[in-house]
Amino acid sequence: MDIVLALKVLIMGLVEGFTEFLPISSTGHLILAGSLLDFTADITREKAEVFDIAIQAGAIFAVCWEYRARIGAVLRGLPNDVKARRLVINLAIAFIPAAILGLLFSKMIKEKLFAPLPVAIALIVGGFVILWVERRNKNGDRVARVESVDDMSALDALKIGIAQAFALIPGTSRSGATIIGGMMFGLSRKAATEFSFFLAIPTLFAATIYSLYKDRALLSAADIPLFSIGTAAAFVSAFLCVRWLLRYISSHDFTVFAWYRIVFGLVVIVTGYTGWVNWAH
Asked: Given CB 3.0 to 4.6 Å as the disulfide criterion, which of 55, 68, 152, 268 pairs with 120?
């Protein structure tokens, strides 16, 4: 692996980690970053797609490490703790919609929507949705009825799971869909964010394992350095991002991310249309 490819892999890993848990779409940013870096000039498009999913393992490990005490308590409490069992059941319920729809439509989505223009449109639309939800909350139109993930119902979990399924569209944002969806359905900002983090563990883990197994014929031992650099970069950046976001939400809303999405989406469209940036497809 030459130094140029190593730098590209490092950048892609950092992009994954910094964007996975913010409501700005890691998949969308990876598509745009890969396009800007011309990532597929160094490896095949198919292997690049596997790489984008596999490095999510770094983000999974970051969340597991940040919440290691809570995860350990939940696992130990499964035999006797009602709240621990409820959380695990709710995570399973929320996981199902995206898992089913992903298996059914992932190939079609990759063929039709994994390109800069669809990502830009999804970024803009998602930005306006976040602005609408935050404005409604600021106006006091809805008061949170669920302050802790321990108090969520199965119906709450199902609704958030359906919201997560929309994130199959690149540029939507898995974390954005689950956090904003949770807030729309009555969860507090803190509860929605924490449930989104917990839900990321089975969701990203399943996506990573499935992708590696399905496309195992494309991979070899020579790819280990490539995936290791990307995963390590994703772990470090995701860990820093999770810690920062938990502090941020204690005193801020998500409006800044909404405007970032809108502005960035418009920049992608304008620069692509004018030819200022050659967004490869």
From this structure: 268
- Residues in CB range of 231: below 8 A, 6 or more apart: 13, 54, 55, 57, 58
Which of 193, 78, 95 is CA-nearest to residue 147?
Answer: 193
Q: What pairs with residue 146 in β-bridges?
A: 187
Q: Are 205 and 60 in contact (CB under 8 A)?
A: yes
Element (H, E) at 173: none
Distance (Å, rounded) from C-alpha 253 to C-alpha 189? 8
**Per-residue CA distances from 203 to 15, 130, 138, 197 (Å):** 19, 22, 31, 10
Provide φ and ψ at 187, rounded to 5°. -85, 150
Q: Which two tokens stand for residue 166?
A: 């929309």
CA distance 252 to 67: 22
pTM across the whole model: 0.92
CB 135 within 8 A of CB 52: no
pLDDT tens, residue by residue, 113-163 = 998 999 999 999 999 999 999 998 887 666 789 999 999 999 999 999 999
Q: What is the three-class DSSP state of 187?
A: strand
CA 114/CA 40 separation, integer angstroms: 13
